[in-house]
C-alpha cells in the first residue's frame, strides 16, 4: 500500500524538526525557514519536481510558502511522491485559499512532551515548566520560556502581520493566560483589553490558527439542568501559560497547583486522543445552577479533575448532578488521592498516575 502524505502541525518549538531528523534520516528535507531555500522555491515552485526520486520529501514550515502546495498536489498525482508537510501555523493555509490537497494528505498534530515521553516524570516539575522539549530539561527553564514568548510575539504576530495592534494583543495574551481554563466572555475581555468584542473573536482565531490555544466547548445535552454553551480557552502548554500570567513558582497544595493540575490532565487527554487518531470529542459541562464537570468524552466518560489529596462527597456534586441526567455512561474523578476506589453510586476515583496509565492504554477513548 502506498504511503499517505501528511500535514503535521504543531506549535513552534514542539519538536517537529528534531523528530524528523531522528526518525526520517533518509528523507529530503526542504526547510523554508532557511532564507536561501525560501527564495529558491519562491522564484520557481516547479523546482520541487527535482525531488521525484526521493522516497519521502519533507517541507518544513510549509505555511511560509503556500504556493508550493499546488506543485505538491501535482507531484502526488502524477509522480506518486509522498510528502510530509509540517507547519506551526495553519492561518495562511486556511484563510488564504491555499491548496489543501483535497484529501490526498492526512492531518496530524504534534504537541509538547507528554508524561509518557519523559523518563522519570515529575508532576511538579511539569506544572512549573510545561512540556516544550527545549524547556523541560533546562536548568534555566524560566529564561527559556520568556525567550519563547518573546519569539512567538515577534515572529508569529509581528512578522506575519496577523494583527496591527501588537500592544493590545499582548495584553490579550496575558489576560487569557490569567483566565486559562475559564469560560470566554467576549464582552468582558474586550472591555479589559480596550478593543471590540469582534476584535477579541479575531484574536482567539489567531491563537487557534497558530496552535497556541484551543477551545473546549460546552456540553449542552442536559435537560433537567440548563447548560451553559460558552467555550473555555486553554493554552497549548502549561509553562507558556505560567510565563504569560507571571505566576512564579507553583507550589504543591496551592490554588495555582490546582489550576495547573487541571490544565495538565486536559492537555494529556487531548494529546492522547489525537495521537491515537480517535474520533472523541472533548467538552465540559456547567449548568446555570453552577454544577460543573471538567471533561466530557463523547457520551462515555464524565471526568472531574481535582488536585485534592483526599476525595470526598463535596468533590462529587457536579458528577452526581450530571449523573441524574442519564446522558453519560461512566463517571470518574482524577486527583492526587493515592487510593483508587469506586463509590457506592458507581463513581471511579483515580489517582492521576492510574488515570494516565489507563488513558494511554485506551480505556477512556
From TrEMBL:
Boundaries of every DUF4143 domain copy: 156-307
Domain AAA: 3-118
One matching Pfam family: DUF4143
InterPro entries: AAA_14 (IPR041682), DUF4143 (IPR025420), P-loop_NTPase (IPR027417)
Domain of life: Bacteria
Name of the protein in question: AAA family ATPase
Source organism (scientific name): Desulfatitalea alkaliphila
Lineage of source species: Bacteria, Pseudomonadati, Thermodesulfobacteriota, Desulfobacteria, Desulfobacterales
